[in-house]
Amino acid sequence: MYFNRVVLLLLFVTWLLVSVVDVHASSYRDLLLQFGGVLGGKVTVFNDKEVDSVLQVINDCLKEAPRYSIVLHGNGSLVVPQLTRFNKMHHLVTMDNLHPLVVLYKDKRSHLTRANLILSIAYIASVSWSRQSANEVYDHHFVISFDTRLKRYHTFSHTYSALSLSLDENIFSSDVLSMCSLFQPFPFTKVGVAAAAEPLVANVKLLSYNVWNTNKLDGETYDDRMDRMGKLLSNSGADIIALQEVRYDNTMASNHGNSQISCLQSYLQEYQYVFQPAMSYGIKGYVRVEEGVALLSKYPIISHDYILLYRNGYNYDDDYHQRICLHVEVAVPVIRRLHVFVTHLSLNAVSRLRSVVEIWKFMSRHEGNKVLMGDMNTEPHSHTIRFLKGSLTVDGVYTENLRDVWDYTHNVKNSSGLTFSTLEDQLTKRIDYIFTYLLPGNSVQLVGLLDDNLRQSQATSDHIGVSAQLKLTG
């Protein structure tokens, strides 16, 4: 009986929302699981109206972007950039992570038609400018999500960089900036008396923070909590911020809108950002709720990708949520490239251990300096953390040179590094971590906690953040 009611509800919803179904279900050749509950199908057909709509969203983002990252006319108006990439993907509902959900709906002639249910449409777009006089190219990259129910566009990712064609390097993060009056350099200093041959030093502050999705406490609104959190993150002084439990929720009645990353980025307007959903929470009355991880950076984001992590199908109750590991390549001063990995591990112990093995293999694909940040949902004595620290081998795999930054601490007041839970009288667990893989000449200088000391009914999140400052010299 319950199953029949669900089917009838789906039929009714899809009949009302004809515009969100795809009658060309068979046209998808390569459907791939994008995240839990959502398959992606590339679409090669689009019209001028949707291109114009996406370009309008891009134009609005560019108006808020730092002036050094865009090209302006002499009167201060924006030079219209060239559209260099425009890809489109339908995000289709799947109940088994293998096949798209097929529904029936009545068309305009009252004929029953089989179709796939489109949850959202993702647009991957890039625009660029070329400055012939300076031999430079400026690129901005976007991932824009169209909510098929609300008929609204939301920017999930906005990254940008500038390339000096003559030097073949990212000029936003190089010492070339210090000699270029057009740009403001990112912070770094030379050691000793200034001389071209002397080494550069960059201090980069990292922060990992679980935002507790869209929960709200008794006696206050979600907007109140987001306002506290936005100010807390803005005042943290962090250069690279990794966030977990970030949500898009089209049921939210909030002044901050439906997209949590957009809300928090409004407090951090100098930061580039990437939000990657890990799990869709289904279609209860055709609700779109997606949760994942995000990264914000003061430094240029060169690229980003992610992997889906192991999910223990035999323990559905504590492993319902699909988990991912987001990889973001950041252009930082001195070392040029920093690979940042962000994750939020499963509640299931088997999945956690399998996941960190997958994450280490993912990290090992990339050379150079790396950091892993996130909510690991487990404490330091666990097999998961022991594997990451190199004291446990799993299926012949072991980590090397990966260090928990808390091992560097000697004079931190809360030397235990507890981060959970602020909803209780006392913090009792350390489940949030930053791990570093640093090449010789680079080190961890400072480690601490981001704690506003608000607890229980006044808590900003159920976690506090963990931070570390890197000293990069080469």
Structure write-up:
This protein has 474 residues and is α+β, with helices and mostly antiparallel strands. 15% of the residues lie in helices and 36% in strands. It is built from 6 helices and 22 strands. The chain has helices spanning 2-16, 48-64, 222-234, 260-265, 349-364, 383-388; strands at 21-22, 32-35, 38-43, 82-93, 102-106, 112-131, 136-147, 152-164, 169-170, 189-190, 200-210, 240-249, 272-280, 289-297, 301-308, 324-330, 338-344, 369-375, 403-404, 432-437, 443-450, 465-472. Strand 17, helix 5 and strand 18 (369-375) form a beta-alpha-beta unit. The longest helix has 17 residues, at 48-64. It is globular.
Provide the descriptors you would attach to this structure in a database record.
single chain, alpha+beta, six-stranded mixed sheet, 6 helices, globular
Quickly describe the structure:
The chain has 474 residues and is an alpha+beta fold.
Set out the fold topology:
Blueprint: H1 2-16, E1 21-22, E2 32-35, E3 38-43, H2 48-64, E4 82-93, E5 102-106, E6 112-131, E7 136-147, E8 152-164, E9 169-170, E10 189-190, E11 200-210, H3 222-234, E12 240-249, H4 260-265, E13 272-280, E14 289-297, E15 301-308, E16 324-330, E17 338-344, H5 349-364, E18 369-375, H6 383-388, E19 403-404, E20 432-437, E21 443-450, E22 465-472
β-sheet strand percentage: 35-45%
Shape verdict: globular
Counting copies of identical and different chains, the oligomeric state is single chain
Give a short account of the largest sheet: 16 strands, mixed
By DSSP (H or I, 4+ residues per run), the number of helices equals: 6
Q: What is the mean pLDDT?
A: 85
Q: Spans with pLDDT under 50 lasting ≥5 residues? A: 1-19, 174-197
Helices and strands, in order, run as HEEEHEEEEEEEEHEHEEEEEHEHEEEE
What would you report as the Rg, rounded to the nearest angstrom?
Answer: 23 Å
* Gap between N and C termini: 66 Å
Helix content: 10-25%
